[in-house]
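REVIEWER CHECKLIST
Item 1: Sequence provided? yes
Item 2: Single chain? yes
Item 3: Sequence as submitted:
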Amino acid sequence: MRESYVPSSALPTLGIGLIGTGFMGRAHALAFRNVSAAFQLPVQVHLAALADADAARAERCANDWGFAHAHGDWQSLINDPGVHLVAITTPNHLHYPMAMAALAAGKAVYCEKPLAISLGQASEMRRAAQAAGVVTRVGYNYQHNPIIGLARQMIADGELGEIIGFQGEFSEEFMGDPATPWSWRCEAAHAGGALADLGSHLLALARHLLGDIDAVCADSHTVHAQRPVAVGSSEQRTIAVDDQTHALLRFANGARGTFSSSWLKHGYKNHLSFEISGTRGTLAFDQERLNELQVYRPGQDGFQRILAGPTLPGYAVFCPAPGHQLGYNELKTLEVHALIQAVCGHGNEGPDFEEAWQVERLAAAIRLAAAEQRWVRIDEL
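Item 4: Structure as written out by the authors:
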């Protein structure tokens, strides 16, 4: 039976508070604006408030993006009684104080990845979320790709047989030029290098597809040890984070794997990719072709290309035709839809602070393995 239409005015209101106005802030704003058009929701989404340290920018972006109020500091947004869900899209070192304040206020939290800049911070955030009893989500939006859902289902259904291998890579080129200036991403106290910025996505995806990882061995490398403080400046600043990290993985299911993250790899824009091999076949995926899955089964002459289409959950709300393709912002809208459903008690999809803590623990183990040049069991941390 078809759902009866409920006017938005008759629905309860979910007030959204967005902190941050950069690329990711805009992506969140678009997702919160688009989700009501794509899905019939159990609540009316209200863009209640937007905050930025630059009060003038906050006012301008609030007007442009459709938010009712602007705040020049994030604590005022959290204190705003019209805000029920706090979305955090700031640099990594601000995730901890903002999320902890929002949790203390009893508000749901939607935080961009990585969860924190240290395992200690992530552990505190995890405990605070458990104590608050509110919904939390972390922005590992690539997991919400319908074609990734298909890959996960194929693995769970045993179509590849026993899983024996994982080869994963997330590479981009945006820091490939040594003349690219220092930014907050280059400071360990504010970020965490290519492993945190890119690799955390790959670690989250590996866990999403194949489950727990028991042990790692790793190597990290800072290729460009100094960068100019600004474009064209002769003054140099020392870099204390990894440009690239490689690791070997031992999964709890017995599979073995490799991991690679780099922000120096020329020619790649968003190369989040994996191959998963089993005793009866192989799956391959590349985020730069995010609507395609490559599948090989013994006896074929080569890989079969599967295109995303309306038979996959989440695709049809954007397009009724296969091959027309979804994009990054559609994945973000799917993530926001899952978040809203969870807040309303209608589902539990997507990584919460507990799962994000597991990803942070895995990243910490990789850093320890690289520092001590040995295998590290995840349960050591």
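Item 5: Key structural point noted by reviewer: The domain at 8-141 is CATH 3.40.50.720 (Rossmann fold).
Item 6: Recommendation: ____
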